[in-house]
Amino acid sequence: MVDDAHLRLMERVFQALASTPRRKILAYLAHAELSAGDIAARFEMSKPAVSQHLSVLENAGLIASEKRGQYVFYRLLPDTLANVLNGYVQEVCPVSRPLKAESRTIAE
């Protein structure tokens, strides 16, 4: 059973992924760590707008930031994204539920 905290997290993840610019940011971060300025340079929008998108992604647990001197660097958290989406799919997918139950039985 998915608890309320997991449901809220999944909601934040899906809201974050609903935006094309945010999906593009995730793609840019797939193999590289980038500064906020490097990310903003790839978009035709204001830096505050890019910053808002980064904030949504970070609040959804999809990316992490680290301040280094005067710059903030962002990196993808792929394991978190995979775990959240996988957990959601397993809860709602009729095929996965029996497999998850079988897995619990094996573990016991």
From TrEMBL:
The protein, known as: DNA-binding transcriptional regulator, ArsR family
Molecular function in Gene Ontology: DNA binding; DNA-binding transcription factor activity
Pfam family, one: HTH_5
Keyword Chaperone: no
Residue span, HTH arsR-type domain: 2-96
SUPFAM superfamilies: Winged helix' DNA-binding domain
Gene3D superfamilies with a match to the protein in the record: Winged helix-like DNA-binding domain superfamily/Winged helix DNA-binding domain
Alphabetically ordered keywords of this record: DNA-binding, Transcription, Transcription regulation
Recorded superkingdom: Bacteria
